[in-house]
Design brief:
Layout lengths: L2 H12 L6 H9 L20 E4 L2 E3 L2 H11 L6 E5 L5 H9 L2 E6 L2 H14 L4 E5 L12 E6 L8 H4 L2 E12 L4 E7 L6 E8 L13
Parallel strand pairs: 3-4, 3-6, 4-5, 6-7
Antiparallel strand pairs: 1-2, 7-8, 8-9
Helix pairs in contact: 2-4
Length: about 210
C-alpha cells in the first residue's frame, strides 16, 4: 500500500472517535514518515506507537488526535508541549496554533526533532532542550499545555504556567498506566475530565518522577 493510501486509511479510521475536522485535517497534512525511524517507515501510518530510541516512543495517532482535540485550539493560541520526542505531535500543534514552545529533556531527540520540523517548514515552533524544571516558565503564560509523558499527579508548576480558562492535557497515574486528563484551569476549583486510560513513558522532573 502506498503512502497516500495508508494515510487515507488512517484518517478514515480516526473519524470513528475524532470529531474535530481541523484536527483530522492537520493529521492528514503532516507526513508522519518524517518523524519515524527508517526501520519503521512501513508502519508510519499504522495506528500504533513506535519506538524512537532512548526508551521513548512516537505516540499512537489516535492518542495524538484525542489529546489535540481536547485542547480545542482555534488558531490564535500559544501552546506549551512537554516531551517533544520525535516532533510529530509538535508539528500537529504547529498547524493548529499560533505558536508552539516544546521542551525535550533528551538532547539527541531535541536535535533530531528540530531538523524534522525545519524540513517540514514549521516556522512557529521553538524546541528547547531542558532538564532544569517542568515546562518553560520564561515564555509563560500559555493558552494550552500538552504533556506527552505520564505524571504521578497534576503538577502545580505547570498549572502556574497556564492562563485562567486555559486547558492542559496530561496523563496521570503510575509509571506504567495512566488516565488521560483534560484540566480546565479556574481561579478556584479546576475542572477535570477523564478522557480514558492510556500508557505513556514517565514524566521526569520536579513534581513528577525521579529519573
Amino acid at each position: 500500500m502506498g503512502v497516500d493510501a495508508a494515510r487515507t486509511r488512517l484518517i478514515e479510521g480516526l473519524r470513528h472517535g475524532i470529531r474535530d475536522r481541523r484536527v483530522l485535517s492537520a493529521i492528514a497534512s503532516v507526513p508522519r514518515e518524517l518523524f519515524v525511524p527508517p526501520d519503521y517507515q512501513s508502519l508510519a501510518y499504522e495506528d500504533m506507537p513506535l519506538t524512537i530510541g532512548f526508551g521513548q516512543t512516537i505516540s499512537q495517532p489516535f492518542i495524538v488526535a484525542l489529546m489535540t482535540q481536547a485542547l480545542k485550539l482555534r488558531g490564535d493560541e500559544k501552546v506549551l508541549e512537554l516531551g517533544t520526542g520525535s516532533g510529530y505531535q509538535t508539528a500537529i500543534l504547529a498547524v493548529l496554533a499560533k505558536r508552539v514552545v516544546s521542551v525535550e529533556r533528551i538532547g539527541e531527540l531535541a536535535s533530531s526533532a528540530k531538523m524534522a520540523l525545519n524540513r517540514l517548514g514549521c516556522k512557529n515552533v521553538v524546541v528547547h532542550n531542558s532538564v532544569a524544571t517542568l515546562g518553560w516558565p520564561k515564555d509563560a503564560p500559555y493558552d494550552a499545555i500538552m504533556v506527552t509523558a505520564g505524571a504521578p499527579r497534576i503538577p502545580d508548576i505547570l498549572l502556574e504556567q497556564l492562563i485562567v480558562g486555559g486547558r492542559m492535557v496530561i496523563p496521570v497515574g503510575s509509571r506504567w498506566e495512566q488516565d488521560l486528563l483534560m484540566v480546565r484551569k479556574r481561579k478556584r476549583k479546576h475542572l477535570i475530565t477523564n478522557l480514558g486510560g492510556c500508557r505513556f513513558v514517565p514524566l521526569i522532573g520536579d513534581e513528577a518522577w525521579e529519573s
